[in-house]
Structures are given as C-alpha cells and as structure tokens.
Amino acid sequence: MKMKRAVCVCSGGIDSTVAATIAKQEYEIYLLHVNYGQKAWRRERDAVLKVSKFLGAKDVKFVSLSFLKELGSSALTDMAIEVPQRLDLLNDAASATTPTASKNATQIAKEETPPTWVPCRNLILLSLASAYAEVLRAHAIFTGFNAEEAASYPDNSEDFVERFNATLEFAVASFSKPPVVITPLVKLLKPQIVKLGMEVGAPLELTWSCYLGGERHCGVCESCVRRKNAFKAAGVEDPTDYER
Ligand SMILES: [Zn+2]
C-alpha cells in the first residue's frame, strides 16, 4: 500500500525535528524550510538538510520569502534591531519544568509584542505548507508548535491551529481532501520535547536553535536559553557548542 504523505515544516530546531521524527513513523515525509529573511537562515538550512538525510525524507524543499524582512519590526529579520540577550530566562532545573503555558491567545495579544515576534509568520508558513501539501496530495502537515512558545507567541497555540484547519477546508481545490495540520507537541514544554525526542530517536545533535547565524550557538538569545533550559531540565546531556 502506498504510504500517506506529510509535509513537515522545519526550522532546523529541536521542536520541528522531533515533530518530523514522529511524522516519519506513519508518513512519507517531505520537509519544508522557509527563509523569511531570518538572520539564522543559512544555519537553519544546513540543519534541515542534515535532519532530512538522517530521517530519510522523501524530499526537502527550501523556499525563499526573504523579502518579508523588508517589512522590518522583528529582531529576527531586521538588521537594525539587535536580538535581545535573555539570560534572565535561564532557569535552574526545577523551575524550568513549571508550566508557563496557561495563557490563551487573547490574553497574549493584549500584552506587549516581544521584539522576536515575526508578524504573522506561522500563518504564512502554514499557508505555504498547505499549498505544498495540496500539490503532493499530502494528508498532513506537521509542525513543532508547543505550549512553551504558545505562552509568548499566539501563532503556536491550539486555538490558532484549530482555526487554521477550519480555514483550510475552504483554501484547497474541491477535488482534494484538505490536509490537516498536526501538532504532536502542542501540549508540551521544551524539556518534555527533549525527552520525547530521545525516546523517538530524533537527531537533536543535528539541530540549530540560535536566532543569530553565527559559527556557534550564541548561548544568550531567547532560543539558546530555552534550549539550555530544556536539556538541563530533561536531564539530557546538551550536545550544543555554545559561544557563552
Ligand atoms: Zn542564540
């Protein structure tokens, strides 16, 4: 029997790599990486290529939407805005496991926008992944959305995915059954994702998390700090080479 297909939206980071590894258990996987003008896109692309080889993906597609950086406003894409150091988020193992994901999307929207927010990024990524899925007649789209990031970024939340899936029914041609966005990590925090990644054999050592595109992980940006916290709280040895 022909295996069902899934598009996996991959950033090269831990979350999307674990999600793709889970997808691989049931689907023929097609990885999609998008350059939305982020400073780290080359590093991310290299990581996605390695992960793709490791997982034996059927194909890997790199799409450039780098013009999105012209909109400015995000520290991830705008060279005029420095990526903030977030050592204040560095946890000891105990506090890192405290759930921080109880806020819903409405509550988040009322708070101040973090400098690392990329306007409508996940809406754009999922739209593109949906188009790719339609071309492939894929049944599913996997993402690494998770509860830890949903606490700061509403486009990682279950509410968002539910509404996106409802929209998708009207967004594809009538001849094809709409693909479904599947988020296996949506209730998990990063330490739980690292643990799950170890269980399913995800190649965490090949992943790239840093918002900067340097030679090594900077060790101080929000994404690096969350990565450090996750390995520490999971009790898993961190394979990452950090600058600091
Ligand atoms: Zn970093």
Keywords:
244 residues; Rossmann fold; binds zinc ion; alpha/beta; globular; five-stranded parallel sheet
Order of helices and strands: EHEHEHHEHHEHH
**Bound chemical compounds:** zinc ion
Given as residue ranges, the uncertain stretches (5+ residues, pLDDT < 50) are 96-103
The total domain count is 1
Note the gap between the termini: 50 Å
The radius of gyration is: 17 Å
Strand-residue fraction?
Answer: 5-15%
Helix content: 25-40%
Can you identify the CATH superfamily?
HUPs
List the helices and strands and how they pair.
Layout: E1 5-9, H1 14-24, E2 28-35, H2 41-55, E3 59-64, H3 105-110, H4 121-136, E4 140-142, H5 147-150, H6 158-168, E5 180-182, H7 190-200, H8 222-234
Parallel strand pairs: 1-2, 1-4, 2-3, 4-5
Helix pairs in contact: 1-7, 7-8
Bound molecules: zinc ion (ZN).
General description of the model:
The structure is a single chain. Helix 1 (14-24) links the parallel strand 1 (5-9) and strand 2. The chain has one domain (5-234): HUPs (Rossmann fold). It starts with a strand and ends in a 10-residue tail after the last helix. Helices cover 36% and strands 10% of the residues. The protein has helices at residues 14-24, 41-55, 105-110, 121-136, 147-150, 158-168, 190-200, 222-234; strands at 5-9, 28-35, 59-64, 140-142, 180-182. With 244 residues, the protein is an alpha/beta fold. The protein has a 5-stranded parallel beta sheet with strand order 3-2-1-4-5, sandwiched between helices. Mean pLDDT is 91; it is low at 96-103. The protein binds zinc ion (ZN). Residues 210-212, 217-218, 221, 223-224 line the site of zinc ion.
